[in-house]
């Protein structure tokens, strides 16, 4: 278990590890690489983390906390919106309009690395999905949504948008991705949550078209 005794030291370790995971790959990065990159002793690293996997979990946890904080900030500033409008706004801010940052860079560099996939899945289901479910319940009250199973609906949405609709994890062409996104849009509408906008789909397709081009056509 991570020992949070010095936030500054922990941040330096996780930042160094993130950079190394992107440049060298998770499997090819050793604890010694992180020690050297952070300019710390082995004892200092192990005082806060028990293993490389522990460092990865801390990185994913921090990313999840950042997303939730951003969501809470958006909701606080837009309390007058309906639940449906809030959800669409949250998606624009956090997923539909994702700009490149460390977690996405790591996911791209790791492709199908199991620790990243599992860790990101656990964080999204534990931290983000419950907040989305709460907004869906709010939609029942204001009449903008009609979701009978908000917890399950939110979990399914995250599973599909973050993994099934991620070409870096599920092989396929941009056309395949478009079909998946259109299906997700239809599925959410069927479940009473019309929150996946055409503009969001278009942005995701443009983003991954750019990624595919940068990778020489290989997803």
List keywords for this structure.
219 residues; mainly alpha; Arc Repressor Mutant, subunit A; Tetracycline Repressor, domain 2; 2 domains; 10 helices; 73% helix; globular
Brief summary:
The chain is an all-alpha fold. The chain has ten helices and no strands.
Protein described:
The two termini are 35 Å apart. The chain is mainly α. The model is unreliable at 96-103 (pLDDT under 50). Helices cover 73% and strands 0% of the residues. Helix 1 packs across helix 2, helix 1 crosses helix 4 (52-77) and helix 7 packs antiparallel against helix 8 (150-164).
Q: Layout of SSEs?
A:
Elements: H1 7-24, H2 31-38, H3 42-48, H4 52-77, H5 83-96, H6 102-110, H7 114-142, H8 150-164, H9 174-190, H10 198-214
Helix pairs in contact: 1-2, 1-4, 1-6, 4-5, 4-7, 5-7, 7-8, 8-9, 9-10
Please give the count of helices. Answer: 10
* Helix-residue proportion: over 70%
The total count of strands amounts to 0
The H/E string reads HHHHHHHHHH
CATH architectural category of the largest domain: Orthogonal Bundle
CATH fold category name of the largest domain: Tetracycline Repressor, domain 2
Overall, the morphology is globular
What distance lies between the first and last C-alpha atoms, to the nearest angstrom?
A: 35 Å
What is the assembly state of the chains in this entry? single chain
In the CATH scheme, the class of the largest domain would be Mainly Alpha
Total separate domains: 2
Structural class: mainly alpha
């Amino acid at each position: 278990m991570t020992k949070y005794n010095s936030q500054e030291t922990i941040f330096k370790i996780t930042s160094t590890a993130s950079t190394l995971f992107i440049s060298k790959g998770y499997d090819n990065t050793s604890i010694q690489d992180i020690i050297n990159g952070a300019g710390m002793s082995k004892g200092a690293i192990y005082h806060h983390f028990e293993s490389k996997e522990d460092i990865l979990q801390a990185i994913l946890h921090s990313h999840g906390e950042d997303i939730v904080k951003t969501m809470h900030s958006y909701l606080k500033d837009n309390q007058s919106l309906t639940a449906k409008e809030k959800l669409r706004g949250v998606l624009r801010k956090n997923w539909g309009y994702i700009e490149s940052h460390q977690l996405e860079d790591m996911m791209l560099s790791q492709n199908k690395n199991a620790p990243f996939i599992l860790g990101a899945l656990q964080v999204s289901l534990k931290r983000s999905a419950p907040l989305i479910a709460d907004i869906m319940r709010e939609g029942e009250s204001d009449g903008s949504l009609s979701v009978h199973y908000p917890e399950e609906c939110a979990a399914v949405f995250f599973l599909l948008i973050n993994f099934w609709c991620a070409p870096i994890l599920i092989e396929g062409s941009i056309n395949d991705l478009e079909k998946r996104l259109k299906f997700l849009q239809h599925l959410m509408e069927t479940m009473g949550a019309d929150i996946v906008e055409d503009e969001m789909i278009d942005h995701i397709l443009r983003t991954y078209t750019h990624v595919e081009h940068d990778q020489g056509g290989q997803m």
